[in-house]
Amino acid sequence: MSGVSSAPTAALPLLLIVDDEIDITDTYSMLLELHGYRVVTAQHGADALVKAQQEWPDLVISDCMMPVMNGLELCAALRALPGGQSLPVILCSGAPERHDLSQSSHNLFLRKPVFFDRLLEEIQRLLPSSP
Predict the structure, then answer these.
(1) What's the angle, vertex CA 12, arms to CA 75 and CA 55, rounded to 5?
(2) Closest by CA position to 32, among listed 20, 15, 19
(3) Helices (H), the chain
(4) What's the rounded mean pLDDT across residues 38-55?
(5) How much is the pLDDT for 128?
(6) Domains in the chain and their CATH numbers?
(7) Which residues form a coiled coil (predicted)?
(8) Are 18 and 71 in contact (CB under 8 A)?
(9) Could you report the per-residue pLDDT of 4-19, keeping only the tens digit for each?
(10) Cα–Cα distance for residue pair 25/39, rounded to 1 Å
(11) Average pLDDT in the 73-84 region?
(12) How far apart are CA 103 and CA 91, in angstroms?
């Protein structure tokens, strides 16, 4: 074991990234881990819901258009769980006109392509205990 001390991994904020495009989840995972976050990824909303119940995330970043369960449905399902009302949810889409966002309880909507600096800034804003 090295003499270098580091924060316990469980103390780092956990971000759940949900997108059916693997390039997006891989890229966000790598960049966010470099910025001191733990990351779990899911390919669609139903997968994300299972993973969220296994280990509750501190914030969710989700695409809107996905198979099985889309981002709007995921947001509603998360809100229905204990603690879900206070969970920060960022929804993203390259075609916002295709979604009725008026009935969604997400915290923030970002149009794709999302620039990483903006995403990081918004995560830090939504997470009070951000690294």
Answers:
(1) 45
(2) 15
(3) 22-34, 45-54, 71-79, 116-126
(4) 96
(5) 65
(6) 12-126 (3.40.50.2300)
(7) none
(8) yes
(9) 445 556 689 999 999 9
(10) 9
(11) 95
(12) 13
**pLDDT tens column, 17-45:** 999 999 999 999 999 999 999 999 999 99
- Residues 45 and 18 sit within 8 Å (Cβ to Cβ): yes
At residue 104, the pLDDT reads: 80
How confident is the model at residue 103, as a pLDDT?
75
Cβ-defined contacts of 67-70 (< 8 Å, 24+): 67/20, 68/44, 69/44, 69/45, 70/44, 70/45
Asked whether 37 and 13 are in contact (CB, 8 A), the reply is yes
- Residue carrying structure tokens 């149009």: 111
**pLDDT surpasses 60 at 78:** yes
Residues in the chain: 131
Bridge partners, residue 41, by sequence = 17
Tokens standing for 72?
């709007």
Dig out the tokens for 26 from the structure. 């891989």
Between CA 36 and CA 55 the distance in angstroms is: 18
Instruction: Calculate what percentage of the chain has a pLDDT beyond 70.
Output: 88
Amino acid at 89: V
Tokens encoding 88: 């920060």
